[in-house]
Write a structure and sequence with these properties.
Elements (H helix, E strand, L loop, with lengths): L1 E5 L12 H13 L3 E7 L16 E6 L5 H8 L4 E5 L6 H7 L9 E6 L2 H10 L4 H5 L5 E4 L3 H10 L6 E2 L20 E6 L4 H17 L5 E4 L12 E3 L8 H7 E6 L3 H6 L5 H8 L4 E4 L15 E3 L2 H10 L2 H18 L2 H21 L2 H12 L1
Length: 374
Amino acid sequence: MRIFVFGSSITSSYWNGAATYYRGIYRNLAALDHDITFAEPDIYDRQQNRDLSEIEYANVIVYQTPRDLDELIGLASTADVVIKHSGIGADDELLEKRVLECKSRHRFVAFWDVDAPATLERVEKDLNDPFRALIPQYDFIFTYGGGAPIVDHYTALGAQNCHPIYNALEPDSHFPVAPDPALESDLVFVGNRLPDRERRVEQFFLRAAELAPELKFILGGEGWGSKKLPPNVRWIGHVGTSAHNRVNSSARMVLNINRESMAEVGFSPPTRVFEAAGAAACLITDDWTGVETFFTPGREILVARNAEEIIQHLRSTSAEQAKKIGAAMLERALREHTYSLRAIEVDAILTSARKRRSSEPAWSLAESQAERIA
């Protein structure tokens, strides 16, 4: 199928945590013979901070917003599937409405939510939010996490369906490499400074550093330059995707801290979890509902409810044990959590819907559309 995508950026991970997810999903959909066009706006200096100069598996369109939107909607209307991702960062509400202009008997339109807690909070707090009324009109709702709670919320809002497509490992991109002595540490955390993450970084990572002044900590990500850090924490700034393997392979342990909204919803392993898994790193994660459905605590992943438990893991887990945990996590990820498997899941959903649509009488579809408009 020809798939036209509106997303934040597939070429740059700069202030764009969804980049790894986009790349894994669309690279593997392309491997299943889907033709991918990815449209991303020229905003937030992402084009000046690209970490992928070429995307071989997709035709990338960098557009000026809102100037180019009419032309892009026209191009999207020639595809078989049109996808609007959440959190593009420019004209999101306008695109949520306009992509539905592309919908027809022969063309599906999907909303793919990469931050479902934020989207749902927005529409559930504001009954007049325009997107609330649009949700039932989409052929598909995809999310990159959330499990049953997110599915239930979207269903209650009238969604025709809701399919969680979780983050995963791209083995060709994330894999073990030789440690870099310049990045040696006891614990590394990589994440941009965001309002609903900062407090948890303070509670888990910075507090742990204060509790263990004899240990070395590295903090990566944008926005931390003005933050007062403990003396044993070194900030290394933006960590592009090309540096993930080196950073994850150089630390004794890697820390994942879910954003507060994601932790509350659960069933939302971020890309960082699978990037660490790819490097066979020993990962400590904050506790969130559903973690055990992805990796087995104590054997494939370590779970901590607070900074004290992080320090306990650091002090009680030997280097040999840490390597065994990292290796077990990589083995599980390769077996059950690759983007190839996620793409097969998406392909099956789209193919099944296409077969059902082709068997429907023309009047049935037109009538159902008229009912929704009414």
